[in-house]
Automatic annotation (TrEMBL):
Top-rank taxon, per record: Bacteria
GO molecular function, one term: hydrolase activity
InterPro entries named in the record: AB_hydrolase_1 (IPR000073), Cholesterol_Oxidase (IPR052542)
Protein name listed in UniProt: Alpha/beta fold hydrolase
Recorded family membership: Belongs to the GMC oxidoreductase family.
Residue stretches making up the AB hydrolase-1 domain: 41-131
Pfam families, sorted: Abhydrolase_1 (PF00561)
Coiled-coil intervals, chain numbering: none
Cofactor needs: FAD
Keywords noted in UniProt: FAD, Flavoprotein, Hydrolase, Oxidoreductase
Amino acid sequence: MILRPLYTRLDETVVEEIPFRAGDGTRLGLTRVGTGRGDRPAVLLLHGHTASSDMFLQPETRNLVDVLLDEGYEPWLLDWRGSCRLPYNETGRRYTYDDVALYDIPAAVAYIRQQIGDRPLFAVAHCIGALSLSMSMTAGLVPGLAGVVAQGVFLTPKLAARTSLKMTMAGELFRSRFDHIPVDFRKVGFWSRYTPLFALASKGASCPDPTCQILSNSAWCVGASLFVHENLSDATHERLAQLLGPAPLWILPHLRRVALARSVVRWNQGDDRYRALPENALDQAGRIDCPVLLVSGSENGMWLDSQKLCHEVLAARQPQLDVRYEEIPGYGHFDTFVGRGAALDVFGHILDFLDAHA
């Protein structure tokens, strides 16, 4: 299996692509970006579902990896099994977020620890990467992290009512015909079976680009928005189909269960292989053993105010935890990492948190 190459301008001498498998043997992608110095705190970067490590490395802006390197950190990038860099991402190979929490993230943390020794290890996670990480943490599978930054969502997922409804409808209406909802109209063509989906996504859209419509205006036809359009550079806008891949429809039942519970809940209830994971991660939040920074854009059209809710719930239920909440004015969801001004508006909050706990 060959991963799609990273779209990066970094010197190849500092990028190490590591042959890596999850705890269940699934081939993943793990990349270390180093400088030859062995005294830097490490930061594991976790992308969202259908995205990839490219979201932290985009060359058209000052990206998060650039900033971390300049500020004395060693980035490690995990392409977990929901990455669009992995060739099996569009084949219908099925999994749930339980697999990510149980097999992908703990294996990556264990491997990095073997390489860095007793240096501090942080995690910065986006969207479903953060949601899955919350399950790993409350299961006690990644103990001893120096700190976690969770963007967009963490322990208390909250979707708009219309998004939940459309997610249910899409799952029931489309799953018999499609495995995935594509995002690149140039690949599927005008006369494909996906054309009605793109037409639906275009309703009320201000941007003429079909890929932007199905992401920004509709979030894979569930009626949400993944970013504030004005925050993207032209180059990033042009590469949306590379930054975000097709969305698998077979994952929707787990996502619906999570959204209805307003908590990260285990999907595989009757399978002994997953007994290490809590049935409800929020009920086990007391097992979190490191500081947490919850980040969200004020205009998050996907997860709404999930992070604010999470901060309030944890403050009430687990006041002993070190949890902060930072809201970024004028930002949505995905643009908190890929927006053209993210280095100025967002990354400083992440660095302040890392520096305080390194």
